[in-house]
Design brief:
By secondary structure, the protein is of the alpha+beta class. The protein has helices spanning 70-105, 111-143, 193-196, and strands at residues 29-33, 36-40, 45-50, 57-58, 63-67, 146-148, 153-158, 165-166, 174-179, 185-189. The protein has a four-stranded antiparallel sheet with strand order 2-9-7-4, with no helix packed on it. A four-stranded antiparallel sheet has the order 6-5-3-8, with no helix packed on it. Strands 1-10 form a two-stranded antiparallel ribbon. The protein is elongated and about 135 Å long.
Amino acid sequence: FKFRGNSAPQYQTVPVTRGDLPQVVTATGQLNPVTNVQVGCQISGTIDKLFADYNTPVTNGQLVARLDPATYQAIFHQTEGDLANAGAALELAQVNARRSEDLFKAKLIPQSDYDQSVATLHQAEATVKVKKAATEKAAVDLQRCTIYSPVDGIVISRNVDVGQTVAASLAAPTLFLIAQDLTKMQVDTNVSEADVGRVRV
């Protein structure tokens, strides 16, 4: 059907045929590696040194950052001293318990004194276990001041700077984002559900 100005309408007819009706779904998104690994820290502290930056290739186990270890070193030394003190108290309790046992067998002290020495010995043994556990925890925290790469890859994001304080309270803060393999990429995008329902292979 065509109509131009004051001229009469003109009609054109064609036979009905079948054809393709294309329907295109478009979306925009961000190109990302298939596998991203977040490198964080389990303790709070100040970033002392960084050994990796953007586009730095890293390998599994490579040192990438270090927190200032001074506070955790002091805590570790303190727990070592507490453990040594508890060990000395245990030695004294063992000596007193043996002496009390000999005196009790010779009927030179009452049962209550012997029982008290045995109880003191058990308390000293428990204290040593508690102090030993505290020392082990302090040693683990000290080791966590050094941050290592968990995978082979390339650093695509560095979220901290030297001197910055990171707080590991409810969740571990992310220090680096490492792409494990940049030859495998994907587009992360949002597509309308109405469009997704019409997509076919």
